[in-house]
Amino acid sequence: MGLLTGKRVFSIMALCMMVGLLLLPIVVALPSPAIGEEAPAVGDEAKKDGEKVEKGRDVYYKTEGIVVGAPAPKTTDGPKDYPRYNFESRVLIWFANQQHLYYGSFVLAVPIFCMIIEFMGVVTKDKALAKRYDQLAYDFIKISLTAYSLTAILGGILIFTFLTLYPAFFSYLSGIFRPVMHIYALMFVAESGTLYIYYYGWDKMREGFLKWIHLSMSVVLNIIGTLLMFLANSWIGFMMSPAGVDEQGRFLGNIWHVIHTALWNPLNLHRILGNMAFGGGVVAAYAAYKFLASKTDEDRAHYDWMGYIAMALGVAFLIPLPFAGYWLMREVYAYRQQMGITLMGGLLAWLFIIQATMIGILFLSTNYYLWQAMGRMRGAEKYQRYIKYLVFLLACGYIVFITPHTMVMSPAELKAMGGQQHPVLGNYGVMSAKNGGINVIITTTVLSFVWYMRGNKVSTVSWAKFGNIFMGVFFVCAYINIIWLAVYGYYIPANVRVGLSVPQVATTLSCLFFMFALNSVMMRGAKQMGPIEWGKISARSQYALIMLATAFTWMMGLMGYIRSSVRLFWHVNEIMRDNSPWAYTHTVGFAANMISANVLFFWISILFVFWLGSLTAKKVPVESKAGIPGSVPQPAASH
Amino acid sequence: MKALMSLSALIGVAGLLLLGGMVLDIVPSTTIRLVEGYMPMQLLLEMGCFVLGFAGLSYILNAMGMAIPRFWQGIGFWVFFLLYLKYRVYPPIPFSVRAMYGTVSLVAVFMWVSANEEDWQKFKQPIMNVLDAQTGMNKLLRYAYLVLLPILIGGFSFNAMMPKSEEPIELRTVHPAPPASTKVHGKTYTLQTSQNPYRVNTEGKYDQEYTNANIVEQGMGRLMKPNANPWDETNQGYLKYVREGGEIFFQNCHFCHGDNLNGRGLHAFAFNPIPANFTDPGTIAQLQETFIFWRVAKGGIGLPNEGFPWASVMPPWEQHLTVDEIWKVILFEYWHTGYYPRTWD
What we know:
The structure holds 2 protein chains of 2 kinds. Helix content of chain A is about 70%, strand content about 0%. Chain A has 22 helices and 6 strands. In chain A, β1 (about 55) and β2 form a beta hairpin. In chain B, a hairpin with a 2-residue loop joins β1 and β2 (about 185-190).
């Protein structure tokens, strides 16, 4: 009892320490927020000396402020501003940045999964299942721990690369963000401390009240991680849509303006969802790899279940991701029409077609996995004959979604077509059709999920027949509404057309929430046609998971490149010009090769991380680790 | 159910016969016309009919004891789709787009035939039979593949590496990215915020809704609204400016952009690509008026670095027209096509 009390006290202290760590950077930064650390000081000093206080006008907020920073340097091509190895500096920074981002995303996403899974374990009444969830969360955090060290190392490499290859730019950026850079560093310390306490305290805080304390720690850990990401996002937000500085790039003393730029919020939302989907994909790929390498049925069952959970979590965040992306693009257009057109209709438009292709692959892989997963349920055969119609819907949505506005063609083909736009397919190239395409794809994915959830069950509620008809009609109406709005979009002004995405998204989300909810109610106490035979899933499904993760990784690399390239020849858009010899946009082919190289390196290195994780696992016998004497992994009885 | 499937099967057979005729050039691809304004949906609906048609055909053949193996069903549908894209859709689709659609349809066929274990086994059985080579025929086929596949790959490699005299494929953008502001006749215009000074209501105030209500109606044809005829001399304000814009258009622009603003003017086919088709929903309907203003004023020659890659020989009209004339001609283009300029509110 005494020991337990001691443990409790220790746990509460640990939690308090975490909260303290979380608050530490904020406390440290208290003098600086809102009005800037040095602004009043400089102003006062100037007044004392009787000097004229120079004021500047914020390029974005249009407010006046006292100039407290140096103007953005006007760089020249040479060793002073752009020292270099005998290699393209931009490629080096690209590589360092991308690897850091991959690992950063992974280590930010996995603790969120752990939090969700640990919570599911705590609230689940089935004790065996609760232990499975707990073990799964522990496995996840173990993987992320090694990746965390690598993230820090890659962050160090990134800073050194900036310092050595782009000193003038980095000096300017760090001058602007000086107060928050220190906060960032302190947040990193807080994140590390919290993560280690969370990980090493797992066994000590396994039961009862202590478990809740442990779970609270994961919440704190994720708050710190998210804030860390928001701060990092403010730098790229500033580079794309600067604020808080005047036309010469001089800091005007308001650090909040510098952070809260036009694109900061959409970037934050898009990245947090993207990280989650990416993290789910990576863990699902890990599970798929382990499944394929498994020697026993028990292992296969465990990793099949793990892959399913990771995939489901990843896809849960993938579904709203296109909508967050849509918001980001809308804000980009609103901020600078030129940027929007460069992205969606100009120089980078072809990369967006590749992006659409990757998004399609993600959803197609997800659907394919779910259909395969129905193979391990008895009773799901009834849906198999209809899958070809789902394939048709997905293929049609996908074809519309990837049709380019500007087609690649030879001059002879251009002449044969009789104009720049194909009269039939050209209509698929604009946003109205594409919104329809992606919403059809997502709605079909929701339908696949609903089929999967009721695969081995037959509803026993008295209104089952009515419920089934209602669901069928609901989906048909949803498809009609989405397609009708896509067609109607051609007949109304563009600003109204942009607004049509709202009812389209609302339709898709209605399918998601209402149909899932209705299905859950209908399946309560349903008759089971047979158990879910975990582990008895085709190998193809696991390749679909690997495909899913690879597509996520590739798409992240691509979107990062697009986002960065849209600044064209600016380090900081319209403020600091890039005068290095590499201030041009790469060809699509070069960019694709570079992204592929980054993806390959990430996957090779993460395999190393997985291998390191497996070394630890081998030292601990499965039985004692799982906490179920003599038991072999028995995944969830339901999904 | 059987009647429905029989009907579907008939559609499937009709589709096969029609496409066969088109491939052999017996039946023109315009036999079933692609109706302007409905073509994109018509294409998707036709594909939907074929999917249902082939499902019906498969059902009927199965019932007759003449089931087509899943392997040939998959291959057959994919080939059908490729031929459909090549011979049914006109004007011809560029190869790059057909390749994209072909890949998507191949993936879709794979997803269909491997969606469950039973189908997958059925699909891959003929492949496994050839690889196992248990019968004489399969043995022969295996040897044939052994010889033919390297030749085929070699042929593709040779074809890819062989120097060609064709004009190279070039990427271009339909909408070159504009600068934040542009200077025309000594005055700077911010593209994000500037407005057409002639888009005004009866009180002379800028009014997008009023002018939108007076443009021609879209539909199968283009009809002027009652009491909104710019060529009525009594009309003042917006409609008068449209008339003046129209006069400028027919004096300067229609030679290339055409009487119907569809990019098919007298001189249009001297250029490749031909001039922009304003009636296409992908051109001016997607853009702000200020974008068009900048584009007309600077022409193809004056495009900035941000606008690359482009291919336009349009002259910089600021050298021939006044600012007012440019705004009026833009007003006319939107009026005539029945499109509304893009706004951000």
